[in-house]
Specification:
By secondary structure, this protein is an alpha+beta fold. It has helices spanning 9-20, 41-54, 92-103, 140-158, 171-181, and strands spanning 4-6, 28-35, 60-64, 70-74, 83-86, 115-121, 127-134. Helix content is 37%, strand content 22%.
């Protein structure tokens, strides 16, 4: 069993909002990044997997006991299957409706992945990456960084240079420094 940690103070605020408004996706951060070039689904899936391996925060899982105590732990990395959706025939109205619904979809359980990614084909010359991440594991700034990292990973993988990347800083270090401070 992996070690468990208390929620940080910022996470506690997000958790309480979730408890007040369950099943509404209130803690979701979602965005669709339009990319003015076609993207290979296999390379983008590798890019997402690389990002998930390099960022331990994606492996945070939340547990709540029957008496209401909440903790978090870091699950081991597991391969991720990237969804690929083609909106080239159905058009932007269908994309916007899908995006609206997917952005507010609540995460099924806190003892599982708190993220979802999909590659979207807009037409033969444009793609998009959709991401929905729970605010328990990311904030708006880190969400922007994730988009940048996905594209940088994609380009490195396509060029055969993905082995140059190292692990990103760990959220576990932040948890431990907060506990030490307290």
């Amino acid at each position: 069993k992996p070690p468990e940690f208390p929620l940080t103070y910022p996470q506690q605020g997000v958790w309480y909002l979730e408890k007040i408004s369950p099943q509404k996706g209130i803690g979701n951060l979602a965005a669709t990044l339009r990319i003015n070039r076609p993207l290979d689904p296999l390379i983008m899936e590798q890019s997402v997997k690389l990002m998930l391996r390099r960022n331990e925060g994606f492996r945070i899982r939340i547990r709540e006991t029957e008496d209401g105590q909440t903790s978090q732990y870091f699950a081991p990395y597991h391969p991720y299957r990237l969804d690929y959706l083609d909106f080239s025939e159905s058009g932007e109205a269908a994309l916007f409706e899908w995006d609206r619904l997917e952005s507010t979809r609540p995460f099924a359980s806190f003892d599982e992945d708190l993220f979802y990614f999909a590659l979207l084909k807009l037409d033969d010359q444009r793609s998009a990456m959709f991401g929905r991440v729970h605010h328990l594991i990311a904030d708006a700034w880190s969400f922007v960084q994730l988009g940048n990292e996905l594209i940088a990973n994609y380009d490195l993988i396509a060029a055969g240079q993905a082995d140059l990347l190292t692990e990103n800083p760990s959220y576990r270090d932040y948890i431990l420094s907060e506990l030490q401070y307290l």
